[in-house]
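Sequence only, no structure available. Ideas?
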Amino acid sequence: MSDVRHVLVLPDRDAAEEVAGELADRFGIAEEPQLVRDALAGEDDAEDAQWLVVVEDPSGRLDSSALDAFAAEYEGWLEAP
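Reply:
I predicted one. Tokens follow.
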């Protein structure tokens, strides 16, 4: 089975950092999620950047709908693969 990567899209850095911190507690993720700033196309203002939390799921055990619901608590969503 190939590695699975989940990408959660969050509205700002604070939300992304909170989500990254909560992932281990809520989903038992061993590996530290990666935070990536995703500037919206054509936007110069850093405040308009979305943040991505990239979660490696090598065993494919994470539930996509649970991750999506979790991200929604922070006004975010799970990016469709």
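The chain is about 30% helix and 25% strand.
Hope that gets you unstuck.
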